[in-house]
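Researcher: Structure for this, please.
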Amino acid sequence: MSTHAKFSPSASSIWLKCALYPSMKARFPDTSSAASEAGTRLHDLAEKALITGVMPADATDCRAIVPYIEHVRKVFDNAEAPHLIIEGKVQIFGEGCEGTLDAGIVSPEKISVIDLKTGTSPVKAFENTQLILYAIGVIKKHKVPDETPVDITIVQPRKKTGWPVDVWSTTTEAVMRWVPKFEKAMARAEVENPPAIAGSHCFWCPGKLHCDEYRSYHGMKRSLL
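Model: Predicted structure, token format:
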């Protein structure tokens, strides 16, 4: 995923709600964590496995990526004249909103956007805004017609419960109806003093302790800073 785009797809669930988040993210960049480093390493191993067929020697690493590898291969093998995207840069709304798609399969009968999640807390595919943005970028680049089926898929081998593959089936037309929502959210964040909206999404904001709206939301006093 991109760490430089102002409107990162991976953080879209936050900036869709809070217009101040992109500015806070720029002022207070995240530091690396053990979880993020492990995720990057597993994504690198998955990319290598898809390209070369070579699986990791470590059994734990294999278990963390095998369902993803198997799903991507299955979708690719079942597609007609497929075009495969692996760790491909996707530009959605210019350089301000771009990211790296884990895997995508584009064919005349369907497009599939597939994301590997390496955490344990379940992530849902249904209306997942990160993957919707990737799908918009793929649809625009490949000029995919309206009503073409779209499968948005989360593969999460290490999640605590449930089947590791979660698929939301939709269409290009339905995906593109999200475009105005994203454009309005980005426009709100570009004004001189973007409005802050506090909520559970604040947990992920690196600048929350410097946000008046967050402190008010949680009843925190300025003197605590």
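Researcher: Any notable elements?
Model: The radius of gyration is 19 Å. The chain has eight helices and five strands.
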